[in-house]
């Protein structure tokens, strides 16, 4: 089902969005038979509650959707999406007091409730369609929903069907759809083109590593997005235990997030020069796998001691970031499912990000709050720099001690992001552990909507 608003519906049902604090006032304005029916039904305006009201001849004439109290809504997002899942098939037109940012959040949630990953079996999704309310930018909201759906589909696809080649195909398909370019460097060509760490991480797999580069737009500020594309992570020779390997199909969640964001940007025709870089690899185990204590030389000439082959994401990102910095972007941003430390710090629902630029950080934080895409700034804490300096090489890919793992990973990446670009890094989870309104269990986008909302301020658009 496309995540779009209803197209030319015939006689959509009015849908009154009511909470416990507004229900009684609404009832007093209704005909006595309606008031009696609502009271008898037990409808209380709670999140997820719905009620159809008949015209007296057996046909529905309106519907009610519970919106909960302000306190209940503060404990989650997309409250109306819960009702969208419960309403019967048909088209609906909002009636009530929703407006502004609250309205935009709820109608986006409604569209996202229509998402289902049904590649392998039929899955439930909302069947109720919504007429685009007045006062919203329907085109923008549909573009955001489509970008989020792309991110979810890519993450949800198992590694058997989503390796480096399939990730390349997804990027190429997106480029074709929007008239962008897509260039790819594969296999041993990575060595001759000076991407040694991408090659080192991916060389053990029969699925060739590659660097995917998508380009779009010829005028405007330069925006470079870099996404971690580890299509499956065994941990390499420092192999993960089974419990830690179970979700590793999502280790390409950073690439999925930047492709979803790129789709939003291109669909909205934002006036930017967009560049998307995805180092796509599978971190596998074989006789030619890179080893603990190896020292690799990165694209920018820095040497890296490998103290854990399971800290491979920062290695492939390092080469891609160094390459991105060479283009002199006005803003460079990376997204990666990088560290368990980030999850310990903020849990699965919040996307921590790092930036040295207070104006950039403030804009992203405000935007995340505005569009219900929770983010939280963590510091590039310079006093921790010695933790990633092993002595035998310039950098250590996995410092010992167990402290500040997300920060030290971000500091590692910053070494490759150049000195002139404004660089921001997101350490995302990319997974919804349990179903919630508009977010079924599975792959999910994080940070992309916050960045999209902040771009006009960040780039002067």
UniProtKB/TrEMBL annotation:
<dbReference type="InterPro" id="IPR048816">
    <property type="entry name" value="Peptidase_M17_N_1"/>
</dbReference>
<keyword id="KW-0464">Manganese</keyword>
<dbReference type="InterPro" id="IPR000819">
    <property type="entry name" value="Peptidase_M17_C"/>
</dbReference>
<dbReference type="InterPro" id="IPR011356">
    <property type="entry name" value="Leucine_aapep/pepB"/>
</dbReference>
<dbReference type="GO" id="GO:0005737">
    <property type="term" value="C:cytoplasm"/>
</dbReference>
<comment type="similarity">
    <text>Belongs to the peptidase M17 family.</text>
</comment>
<dbReference type="Pfam" id="PF00883">
    <property type="entry name" value="Peptidase_M17"/>
</dbReference>
<keyword id="KW-0031">Aminopeptidase</keyword>
<dbReference type="InterPro" id="IPR043472">
    <property type="entry name" value="Macro_dom-like"/>
</dbReference>
<keyword id="KW-0378">Hydrolase</keyword>
<dbReference type="GO" id="GO:0070006">
    <property type="term" value="F:metalloaminopeptidase activity"/>
</dbReference>
<dbReference type="GO" id="GO:0006508">
    <property type="term" value="P:proteolysis"/>
</dbReference>
<dbReference type="Pfam" id="PF21337">
    <property type="entry name" value="Peptidase_M17_N_1"/>
</dbReference>
<keyword id="KW-0645">Protease</keyword>
<feature type="domain" description="Cytosol aminopeptidase">
    <location>
        <begin position="308"/>
        <end position="315"/>
    </location>
</feature>
<protein>
    <submittedName>
        <fullName>Cytochrome C oxidase subunit II</fullName>
    </submittedName>
</protein>
<dbReference type="GO" id="GO:0030145">
    <property type="term" value="F:manganese ion binding"/>
</dbReference>
